[in-house]
Input
Amino acid sequence: MNWSNVRLIFQREVRDQLRDRRTLFMIAVLPVVLYPMLGMSMFQVAQFVREQATKVLVVGEWRTPDEPALFEENHFAGRWYDKPSNSRLLELDFLPEDKLAEGEANVEAQRAGWRQAIDQGRYDAVLVFPPDFAEKLTELRKTLDGERPKELEKIRRINIPKPEILYSSTSEKSQITEDRIEAVLGRWNAEMGRENLALGHLPENVAQPFVPKREDLAVEGHRDARLWSTVLPFLLLIWALTGAFYPAVDICAGEKERGTLETLLCSPAERIEIVWGKLLTVMLFSMTTAVLNLISMGMTGSFVLSQLPKFGPPPPLAPIWLLVALVPVSAMFSALCLALAAFARSSKEGQYYLMPLVLVTLPLVMLPMAPGVDLNLGNSLIPVTGIVLLLRAMLEGNYQQALIFGPPVIVVTLACCLLAIRWAVDQFNSESVLFRESERFDLKLWLRQLMNDREDTPTVAGAFFCGVLILLIRFFMGFALPQPNSFGELARLTVVTQLVVVATPALLMAIMLTRSVRKTLLLRLPAGGSLASSLVSLVAAVLLAFCVFPAVGWFGVLVEQLYPLSPAVKESLDGMLKGTPDLLTLILVMAVAPAICEELAFRGFMLSGFRHMGHKWRAIVLSSLFFGVTHAIFQQSIVTFFIGMVIGYVAVQTSSLFPCMLYHVTHNSLTVLTSRVNDATLADYPALNYLLAKSPDGTGMMCNWQITLVAGAAAVVLFLWFRQLPYAKSPEEALQEAIEQHASHAPT
Output
């Protein structure tokens, strides 16, 4: 790669972007004026935002001769508020007890009238005191009054009826009124409790033996870091993404519209040099946008929050940590935006891709804000989320925690950057992507073309649609069907899910959208040229399942330690296994049915469609991703994804679905058999002690480490054997391989 060409392309793109007034406004002007304008608006709006008084209808008799005064005129007494002036926030109208209706029918009619008054807004709430409320309060206080209350049984029998607050949850104003009334009645109730203790000659600490003493041990400079550590990383990532998207769309999709992309592609610069020149340009504007927004927001926020008591500026080292994190973040987002922009036919189409990208990124940015989500090994392996958690730890001064989990965050982030850059390079190497023609979508024409222009195997879009359809059906069926509480219910749910959710969409789409169901679903003997070689492939798939199974068990333990199962999930899983039947039924339900249905969908229809992208490993990864996500439990999805990678590789190398089914049946059967082993089984069959050991949590069995090492070495040999099989390439894979060979032999 010639870096001189990269520099020339970088300078060209920067000059073009600096001539664009929209880009300059988005990157330089908007961040500078946005946050000061927001701060000014907040102060202006605050002048008009005042707590509004609400109206309450008080019904019934509440007065007793010696009670603490609850009301003053037409308001609650000021003593029941932290600020006595707040008593004016509740305006009261009184309906005495002698005007209450009598009789059940009349009472219901009167309550209906109160409900109508709240709905019509005449009152925001109604406070109803029961008819004998005041009488019971007086009786209790008279019983307590004296040297020492001796009539304890009489005191216990005095049942004071509870006042009732009527309000409407559909009205925010009514809900606020209910909260205000409840706070006042709570303070009034507490005061009467203290007076009752005094009447009974009991000290207050009888009802409240102790009050905990609190002491904040946070370092003085770190007390304000919690808010800043939440806001600043969020803004950093959002603005890095936004700042990368618009320049990427302009220098890719915009160049397609202006007709200048062809000129650039005809230059002596290689495609990878063009990508790097454009990538550095997008990174520059992404970083500039993020930095200007952070500076403007930091200055404005510091000024606004400094007006609040006991609140300080951001941590002094915050700019350093944010700038260090900004480089890989901008590189990752810039590469993603560049690849999406290259795929777009026009600038208008490119704008539509921002929302899906934000929808994918936003949950990863918001996850660290959830309660209990801290920086640990499991969370540090989540892209984007790990960066936010690491920045939060650095801004809060938790340097030891950041030092421990920083390396995995860095490794994952760099891996994401490299994958994103590789994707962008692949997009620019694909002529079908760069020169897609703009077209109007016509549903009737599209359906006709879909049926008439069918090929032997599905298209990439058809494979993707099949995966999404399976996920959608599974999602809604998960809510429609009840959770199983026994193995019988679990078996019925499993069979229905496999047949209806997984197999049926794949089979119907294979029949309707392809010309050859047999080629699509790989329903043929393994490639090899003879029956003997096909049988060898089938046996090799079974042996591979045996050899990989121990490593899968250890990997599952690692995943569960990184992302522990919640107690509720464990309890639910234990309940499903109640009444487990004989071993044959268990294997048929848990091994044979999933092996047939899931292989037809994921290694049959989807893998065949994804192979039209021209990269077999990309097809394997995508089909495995859908395979993993289909499983409901997150921990199981991770393990299943990697199992899908192994089975997908077997499917590609053998060009047959039958080895995949045998692998799947063998793996699931081994899982079932291992789950049935317990201490009694080990006592009856001592030889199993040489193969199995208890899992770290002591709840199950797994292969010991010696067997795992031996099986792993055998699995490597089997992988090498599958690798040398002459598999059938798709036309796109053959073309891509020829292009890569030509590029590697081309003179530099």
